Amino acid sequence: MAAREPIGRSTQNPFTPGFGLTPVILAGREIAIEEFTAALRGEVPEARSILISGARGAGKTVLLAEFRELALEAGWTDLRLHTSSTSLAEELRRQAVSALRELDPEAETSQLTSARIASVAAERDIRRRYDGEGEDLTTVLDRLARLADEDGAGLLITLDELQSANRDQLHALTQHVQDLIGSGHAVAFLAAGIRPGVDALLDHERTTFLRRAHRIEVGSVDVGTAAEAIRLTVADTAKSITPEAAVLAGEISCGYPYLIQLIGSKAWQNSGDADVIEVEDVRGARPATIAAMIKNVHGPALRGLSPRKREYLHAMLEDEGPSAVGDIARRMGIDPRNQSTYRERLIEEELIRPAGRGFVQYALPYLAEALRHQESEGADIEPDRGLTRSRRARRR
Ligand SMILES: Nc1ncnc2c1ncn2[C@@H]1O[C@H](COP(=O)(O)OP(=O)(O)OP(=O)(O)O)[C@@H](O)[C@H]1O
Ligand SMILES: [Mg+2]
Questions:
Q1: Which of 148, 210, 290, 332 is the most exposed place for a label (fewest CB within 10 A)?
Q2: What's phi and psi for 2, nearest 5 deg?
Q3: What are phi and psi of 361, to 5 degrees?
Q4: Confidence class for position 109, pLDDT limits 50, 70, 90
Q5: Domain around 145
């Protein structure tokens, strides 16, 4: 047998600066993961209904995916719903039926028999049984949950981008989840979404179930944890990072999950062929990191903002640290009592947060830079007017 090449450490960039991409090292999610593991085991069944909320790029989808992995490892059956589907109930049925096909031992034996005797009729029978035709969704779900319950496992239902869910469909979905739980099945329900949309949904009377769910707010971790996450991400590769460089990268990330990946990735790129990522590589990566944060997080959040709310944010730019609400009102030329409406809405939208009595500050890192950038560049990022002949055309 030919001797195998020793497996070298990866020279590929290990950072994941993209939405929904699970990082190598999860910063600051230990407690949430411990709690969910305990909930899966049945120690705290009420903690199986979870609502993850937070700003864009705070790590909601990643946490949802990690919870799903934990559940799958523990033998749970998962149904993944998308708010983009036209009907959540239809999607739930489709997913439940296909999970049933996999789980139901009877279906398997019948399928084997039908393969052996090539009985078209028998195959058709199974298909009809699990098409869910003639069976209401409650019955289908009940049967699935009963099969999933075995060996201490259960049924996991997840829904990302909750803010875009249709309220009535969501109500119908949570009703099914409640019924299953009420019948004594082991069911976990995980939903994730950005605060403004989710809060609006929760205001509605038909969303009591979600209001009572265990709430996990994801956001920044402390800067030291961020630096350690960056160091550990690099540690598994062919490169290393100096302690000073890791600390600086942690500081630039402000502990914000998306920024941790951005600064790590860009510093890695800057280090080129070198074995070590140095402070200069990190420092040089700062502008591109901030630009990506502005484009992908602040840009979308600021785009739909009313002129008055925008003015409020701009009025805060003059201050180095937190801004006094009285000063903001004066700068906007409005009555101090009227500023509280804008203040409340901007807090709900996670653009600002209270900073002690009578003070507010920006809620996300580099929001001030984003506002200044918009001031100088107009509302959007400069269009790229460069022309490049495509690779394909060059090959001709
Ligand atoms: N715990 C974490 N530690 C380090 N990086 C993380 C963590 N969670 C997420 N990230 C990184 O942050 C970025 C955003 O993650 P994710 O897509 O989960 O955010 P999100 O909150 O779902 O955003 P959106 O609101 O746009 O859907 C990704 O680059 C991901 O790799
Ligand atoms: Mg997401």
A1: 332
A2: -65, 140
A3: -145, 165
A4: very low
A5: 30-217
Band (138; pLDDT cuts 50, 70, 90)? very high
Radius of gyration of the chain (CA): 26
Cβ of 27 less than 6 Å from ligand 1: yes
Find out whether 137 and 111 touch, Cβ atoms under 8 Å: no
The protein residue whose alpha carbon is closest to atom 6 in ligand 1 is 257
Query: 375 vs 366, which has greater pLDDT?
Result: 366
Supply the DSSP symbol for 295.
I
CATH code assigned at 272? 1.10.8
Domain boundary, last residue among 301, 329, 360: 301
Residue 23 CA to ligand 2 centre (angstroms): 13
> Whole-angstrom Cα distance, residue 74 to residue 29?
19
Do 146 and 50 reside in the same domain of the chain?
A: yes
pLDDT band at 376 (very low <50, low <70, confident <90, very high): confident
In the listed set 187, 202, 217, which residue is the last one of a domain according to the structure?
A: 217
Examine residue 21 and state whether it is found in any structural domain, yes or no: no
DSSP 81: E
Nearest CA to ligand 1 atom 13: 258
